[in-house]
UniProtKB/TrEMBL annotation:
It comes from Datura stramonium (Jimsonweed). The keyword Glycosyltransferase applies. PROSITE patterns: UDPGT (PS00375). Belongs to the UDP-glycosyltransferase family. This is Glycosyltransferase. InterPro entries: Glyco_transf_N, UDP_glucos_trans, UDP_glycos_trans_CS. Residues 7-222 form the Glycosyltransferase N-terminal domain. The keyword Transferase applies. Keywords: Glycosyltransferase, Transferase. It is an enzyme of class 2 (transferase). Its EC number is 2.4.1.-.
């Protein structure tokens, strides 16, 4: 279908992870509501997972465009996504994505958009766009604090970060460095190539000082796009979960999830299970296993007798759960979370305080930010970064049950009211910037 002539057409290329594709799609919807035409470019397996979310309302303004990765051994098409990807194949997927630059250039020539919006690890997408005189802007689905800390550490080694509330513990720093290719901060090249501005999934109210510092580091304007929390799914589709939650008292239950890309080890699973058992708080827990490594029964991953001991107090699910729908339920009083940025935004929108258990990459920094703004509490680990079930139980009880956690619960509600009252203010600023960029090319 042809984009209407009076609209601005935008080609979006998110990284192949649900936590990136989802905010890109929500941004696409916000822009489509303001007369933009969007080409959402991703692999077949990822597009099939979001097809349902492009409803009739957006069928003319958001086109899903298939993007084919080169064929590599051990990486069949169903692995062209990070969702459920066995961890040892992550580097192979990144390599395949980088090798797809010629495919992207062809797509650009075919669609000829007015603008490209690309993700954190794609400097090559910006290069392809600039070679045919199309402006390219980076959209980061991370917190400004995370990016500012990373760029600071890379540009100013040995110099103290100007915001002492944001820091990494030694074991977190070692873990982070082990994930960086050649110890290099992966955002740097993509940030530098973004034309004039950088879009970020955040709010000025929440991260103003980190946004301003990041802007000074990269000499570009940081433009917040807001929370971009997806609309929750139809409650009727999840009747069993809703019925279980309906039986629980208001604010008495925690939702437990560690995102779509992190898989707990057996030791971690047992520590979380024991923490939930010790807390004596109701819980709904989503457990995930990598594709091809599923064990025959979720019960086999849990401590012996765990499900029997917790009984009706706990609901354990494998794979996926409607997170936004669950977090909105009145019985939910806390979210035991890995502190992925999308999860934090959802929690904030729905006024649910967080019991923080950061696992990797940006999550420890997000956890510090949460504690600093006062809507979360981290479950303390030992000096090697190992989970401690007693500390998990302690944090859950404090946030959900005890009087000392009232201040955290209150802060979560306040932030929710403030953010929901803002509506789409940020998007209006985004539209203004993007129109100006296209008009100036």
């Amino acid at each position: 279908m042809e984009a209407k002539k009076n609209t601005i057409s935008v080609l979006m290329l998110p990284w192949l992870a649900h936590g990136h594709i989802s905010p890109f799609l929500e941004l696409a919807k916000k822009l489509a509501n303001r007369n933009f035409h969007i080409y959402m470019c991703s692999t077949t397996v990822n597009l099939s997972s979001i097809k349902k979310r492009v409803t009739e309302k957006y069928s003319q303004s958001i086109e899903l465009v298939e993007f084919h990765l080169p064929s590599l051994p051990n990486l069949p098409p169903h692995y062209h996504t990070t969702n459920g990807l066995p961890p040892h194949l992550m580097d192979t997927l990144k390599k395949a994505f980088e090798m797809s630059s010629p495919e992207f250039s062809k797509t650009l020539q075919t669609l000829n958009p007015d603008l490209v919006i690309y993700d954190f690890n794609q400097p090559w997408a910006a290069d392809s766009a600039s070679s045919v005189n199309i402006p390219a802007v980076q959209f980061l689905t991370f917190s400004a604090a995370v990016i500012a800390l990373g760029i600071h550490m890379y540009d100013k080694p040995g110099e103290m970060f100007p915001f002492p509330e944001i820091y990494l513990r030694e074991y977190e720093l070692l873990s982070l460095m082990s994930t960086l290719p050649g110890g290099k901060f992966p955002f740097d090249e993509g940030l530098r190539r973004s034309q004039d501005i950088i879009l970020m999934k955040t709010c000025r109210d929440l991260e103003e000082k980190y946004m301003d510092y990041l802007s000074s580091l990269v000499s570009k304007k940081i433009v917040p796009v807001g929370t971009l929390v997806q609309e929750s799914t139809n409650k009727d589709d999840h009747e069993e979960i809703m019925q279980w939650l309906n039986k629980k008292h208001k604010g008495s239950t925690v939702f437990v999830s560690f995102g779509s890309e992190f898989f707990l080890s057996k030791e971690q699973t047992h520590a979380v299970a024991q923490g939930l058992e010790l807390s004596k708080v109701n819980f709904i827990w989503v457990i995930r296993f990598p594709q091809g490594e599923k064990i025959s029964n979720t019960q086999d991953a849990l401590p012996e007798g765990f499900l029997e001991r917790v009984g009706e107090r706990g609901l354990v699910m494998e794979g996926w759960a409607p997170q936004a729908t669950i977090l909105q339920h009145t019985s939910i009083g806390g979210f035991v979370s890995h502190c992925g940025w999308n999860s934090i935004m959802e929690s904030m929108k729905f006024g649910v305080p967080i019991i923080a258990m950061p696992m990797q990459i940006d999550q420890p920094t997000n956890s510090r930010l949460l504690e600093y703004i006062g809507m979360g509490m981290e479950a303390v680990r030992d000096e090697n970064g190992e989970l401690q079930s007693e500390q998990i139980a302690k944090a859950i009880r404090k946030v959900v049950v005890e009087k000392s956690g009232e201040v955290v619960r209150k802060k979560a509600k306040e932030l929710s009211e403030k953010m929901n009252a803002k509506g789409d203010e940020e998007i209006d600023g985004v539209v203004e910037e993007l129109v100006a960029l296209c008009n100036n090319k």
